[in-house]
Amino acid sequence: MQRNFSDWFKSFRNSICDYKYYVDFEKVYGNVDSIKVELNILNSLIGSKNIEADFEALLTKYPEILKCIPILLAIRGREIYAIDGDGEYLFDFRQMNCSAEEYKAFMRKTGLFKLISQKLIGNLVDYVTGVEVGLDSNGRKNRGGHLMEDLVESYLKNAGLVKGSDYFKEMYISDIERRWGLDLSSISNTGKTEKRFDFVVRKGNIVYGIETNFYASSGSKLNETARSYKTIALEAKDIDGFAFVWFTDGQGWKSARHNLEETFDVLDNMYCIADLESGIISQLFKA
Hints:
The protein is an alpha/beta fold. It contains 14 helices and 7 strands. Strand 5, helix 11 (220-236) and strand 6 form a beta-alpha-beta unit. The protein is elongated.
């Protein structure tokens, strides 16, 4: 049955965010737990009237407290560079590479001594938990990039397909060619481009190379993606035993609607979330 692009496009979603998209609390808790002992040692400095001397005493007795200092500044790394009129330093927080005086200067000049001694915070464990939540929000872009992939995989599993047997994740063209003896040189530019598909499904005598993506916002990448997948769609038509499938969605496509429609016109196996909900996986990969 001939599909209508306009009707199909109307079903595109504004968002694909699941509940774990916003903050990965298990990761947050794990990061905090890994330095909780050291943070509690530093808690003894809260409200200190002589914080520089107290810090030096702690550093001498418990040098391991250094490792939790970067996160107090919302920094993941274990080395921090700093320069001012007093000099240039690369502070190592895995093991001391500077003197206690220099580490005290670091704490003073970054404002950490003031934060701790003036009781601007009540508990460093709670403070770092908040810092970790903030840092984890930066990971939303990476999580968002996998949401459509995860959604498609959930439908593959629900359709009874088994990973490693019926479907494979992140498979390169060269691996497909070796495994099933296909010639995909027209897609790989005679081996010069090592294309990787998000999923590969083998059903019957057909190997399906699958791409997935979701675009909530517009950008130049969308036009490039549509053109690239149109090329793959046309090249795949002449390959016996292989089919190209594209699952995409998102209101970001509004700005690249015409390029998307051009691909839609030449790619029969092009689907959105509404198609997934309508059972297209079972129809497409039926035994």
